[in-house]
Design brief:
There is one protein chain. By secondary structure, the protein is mainly alpha-helical. It has one domain (about 5-155): Ferritin, core subunit, four-helix bundle (Ferritin), CATH 1.20.1260. It has helices spanning about 5-35, 40-65, 85-110, 115-145, 145-155. It is elongated. The model has no long low-confidence stretch (mean pLDDT about 95).
Length: about 160
């Protein structure tokens, strides 16, 4: 089934952002585990895996639409040097994905590709859930301070 060129471009843009976030979240998860924050790292690791599954679904859809999944265009991986920066970097990546998902949903809607739109809407729901979690963690750090947050996170692991 031949896919619309604009829809395929939008799907590939979101695929590229997912490929960056997979690596970024995986690296952050391992950094946190190395620092002794295993439980916090596990949350990021699971989100990396969730993004990998989302990327897989996009690849499948692009191939079904007779497009070529672009696995070569990587954006910049943002690496935090402390817990706050890690969460902020991940929040920044999720915000970029949120914008791209909203744009792609609109493109697919306009091009009458409702299956791709539905797939992207599912991914947007995951994105919004993680954005909310990241915002909550950053709010906690602001309210109780990084030292107290880190102490709580270290105890939890």
């Amino acid at each position: 089934m031949q896919g619309d060129r604009l829809a395929l471009q939008a799907l590939n843009k979101n695929l590229g952002l997912l490929l960056v976030s997979i690596n970024q979240y995986f690296l952050h998860a391992r950094i946190l585990r190395n620092w002794g924050f295993a439980e916090l790292g596990e949350v990021l690791y699971k989100h990396s895996i969730r993004d990998m599954k989302s990327a897989d679904a996009l690849i499948e859809r692009i191939l079904l639409l007779e497009g070529l999944p672009n696995l070569q265009e990587y954006g910049k991986i943002l690496v935090g040097e402390n817990i706050t920066e890690i969460l902020q970097c991940d929040q920044q990546a999720e915000q970029a994905k949120h914008i791209a998902l909203a744009d792609a949903i609109a493109v697919c809607e306009n091009q009458l590709d409702f299956v791709s739109r539905d797939l992207l809407e599912q991914q947007k729901a995951i994105n919004e859930e993680y954005l909310d979690w990241l915002g909550t963690q950053l709010d906690l750090i602001e309210e109780i301070g990084l030292a107290n947050y880190a102490q709580t996170a270290a105890r939890a692991g």
